[in-house]
């Protein structure tokens, strides 16, 4: 079988490719690569031939494993007497903060294909990389939360803090809240203490700082004090602050969050709607996990987590005609030197279930 032969050859080649390593880990797991799949059921399109090339000639430094490019080229046939527009998808695993569209080359007969990007679930184990499940998660609908609705009105506290001397200030806020009735989202704080419904948050301020507290549900009373020490015992008045409040919908709050975060090149090319769904989903999850409390840092961390990306595109086939579809992308292998003196590298390639294509 052609594909099996490629993988055996790959395993032989990978074990002899050198890579510099100092005091790095003894095991570094890479994620599997996959081929394209057809979205609609009972598609007449057949895959006549598939060529798979792994290129390690430009391995990049900075990883604990081997990096390379995979190029998969498919000869596909439309055996019907009618033109056929096939909707296809290509899933892969990546991070929002490092997604680079120029690393993906998608063509049909050598011509670039436009595509839409969908952000899927966080990858916690390889079992999630299932074609049927991935297709079900492709959606342009706005995420609907459990702990909030997108149009729900919330109260946003914006607090401008200014130390009046060069003395750093530990700016602390105490409040009580019932997590069944109130949900809290904070920005800029780096200390959290909680005892039942009693909560204290604080932030070190070396210069002027802007802090935020978003309150969903019943309002809270802010009790504010400033300190010069980390134990919050030495009070000080060497600080001024102003509090501004506004009513804002949860949806708009998250869109504002996206706009503030949209400074990196990777996020500029990702659809706003997909970023909204990612942040809304994580906000919902953290509010449940942390019993009604979420931080902006929790949301930001989602950008650095491996998740499933899916490119969705269309290929127009003539009647009784062929198309050569090619996808090229970067991949990382799994490094393992737990039982060997030199690291061994392996790459997984998930084959598309036969049921997705006509036979």
Query: Tell me about the biggest sheet?
Result: 5 strands, antiparallel
Quote the distance from N terminus to C terminus.
16 Å
Could you give the order of strands across the largest sheet? 4-5-20-7-8
Shape: elongated
Radius of gyration: 26 Å
Poorly predicted runs: 1-23
Query: How would you state the average pLDDT, rounded?
Result: 83
User: What is the β-strand count?
Assistant: 23
Briefly say what this structure is.
The chain has 359 residues and is α+β, with helices and mostly antiparallel strands. It has helices at residues 2-14, 131-137, 250-261, 265-268, 272-289, 296-301; strands at residues 27-28, 33-34, 37-38, 46-55, 67-77, 84-94, 105-108, 111-112, 116-122, 153-163, 169-176, 182-187, 191-195, 198-205, 209-217, 223-227, 239-249, 293-295, 307-317, 322-332, 334-336, 344-346, 349-350.
């Amino acid at each position: 079988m052609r594909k099996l032969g490629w993988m055996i050859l790959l395993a032989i080649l990978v074990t002899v490719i050198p890579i510099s390593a100092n005091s790095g880990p003894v095991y570094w797991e890479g994620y599997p690569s996959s081929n394209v799949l057809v979205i609609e059921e009972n598609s007449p399109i057949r895959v006549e031939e598939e060529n798979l090339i792994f290129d390690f000639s430009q391995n990049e430094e900075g990883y604990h494993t081997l990096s390379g490019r995979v190029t998969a080229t498919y000869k596909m046939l439309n055996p019907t007497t009618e033109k056929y527009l096939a909707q296809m998808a290509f899933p892969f695993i990546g991070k929002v903060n490092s997604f680079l569209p120029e690393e993906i080359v998608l063509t049909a007969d050598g011509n670039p294909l436009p595509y839409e990007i969908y952000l899927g679930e966080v990858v916690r184990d390889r079992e999630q990389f299932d074609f049927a499940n991935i297709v079900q998660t492709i959606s342009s609908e706005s995420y609907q939360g459990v702990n909030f609705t997108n149009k729900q009105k919330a109260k946003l506290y914006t607090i401008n803090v200014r130390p009046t001397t060069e003395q750093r200030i530990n700016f602390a806020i105490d409040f009580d809240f019932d997590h069944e009735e109130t949900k809290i989202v904070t920005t800029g704080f780096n200390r959290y203490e909680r005892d039942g419904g009693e909560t204290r948050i604080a932030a070190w301020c070396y210069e002027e700082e802007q802090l935020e507290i978003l309150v969903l549900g019943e309002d809270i009373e802010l009790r504010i004090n400033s300190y010069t020490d980390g134990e919050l015992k030495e009070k000080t008045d060497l600080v001024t602050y102003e509090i501004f409040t506004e009513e804002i919908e949860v949806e708009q709050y998250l869109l504002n969050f996206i706009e503030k975060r949209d400074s990196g090149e990777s996020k500029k090319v990702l659809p706003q709607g997909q970023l909204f769904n990612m942040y809304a989903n994580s906000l919902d999850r953290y509010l449940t996990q942390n019993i009604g409390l979420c931080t902006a840092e929790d949301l930001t961390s989602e950008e650095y987590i491996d998740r499933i990306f899916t490119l969705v595109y269309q290929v127009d086939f003539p009647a009784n005609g062929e198309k050569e579809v090619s996808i090229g992308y970067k991949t990382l292998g799994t490094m393992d030197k737990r039982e060997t003196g030199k690291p061994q590298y392996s790459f997984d390639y998930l084959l598309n279930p036969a049921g997705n294509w006509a036979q």
